[in-house]
């Protein structure tokens, strides 16, 4: 009688715990969304916009981009 009662209590207590465990073939880790590609649009008017526009006119697009890349690398590093 006591064994049956103990078994019944264990079954009742184990049922909610079993619901928390992952099913076969399912992992515990959360699924991650696919990586989103970030694309930069045209820059809005900021404090350096007049300087950049003047630099493109004076230096030309290719020379301006070369110096811009150097300045960005110095600032980032």
How many DSSP E strands? 0
Structural class comes to: mainly alpha
Beta percentage is under 5%
What sort of overall outline do the alpha carbons produce when their principal axes are compared? rod-shaped
Radius of gyration (Å): 32 Å
Written as H for each helix and E for each strand, in order along the chain, the element string is: HHH
Average pLDDT, rounded to a whole number, is 75
Q: Distance N terminus to C terminus?
A: 75 Å
Major sheet attributes:
none
| Low-confidence parts | none
Number of helical stretches of at least 4 residues = 3
Helix content: 55-70%
Give a summary of the structure in a few sentences.
60% of the residues lie in helices and 0% in strands. It has 77 residues and is mostly helical.
Tell me what you see in this structure:
- This protein is mainly alpha-helical and 77 residues long.
- Helix content is 60%, strand content 0%.
- It is built from three helices and no strands.
- It has helices at residues 2-20, 49-59, 61-76.
- Helix 2 (49-59) packs across helix 3 (61-76).
- The longest helix is centred in the first third of the chain and has 19 residues, at 2-20.
- The protein is rod-shaped, with a radius of gyration of 32 Å.
- The mean pLDDT is 75.
């Amino acid at each position: 009688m006591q064994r049956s009662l103990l078994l019944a209590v264990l079954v009742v207590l184990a049922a909610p715990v079993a619901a928390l465990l992952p099913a076969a073939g399912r992992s515990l880790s959360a699924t991650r969304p696919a990586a989103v590609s970030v694309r930069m649009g045209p820059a809005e008017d900021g404090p350096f916009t007049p300087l950049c526009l003047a630099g493109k006119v004076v230096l030309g697009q290719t020379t301006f981009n070369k110096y811009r890349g150097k300045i960005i690398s110095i600032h980032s590093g």
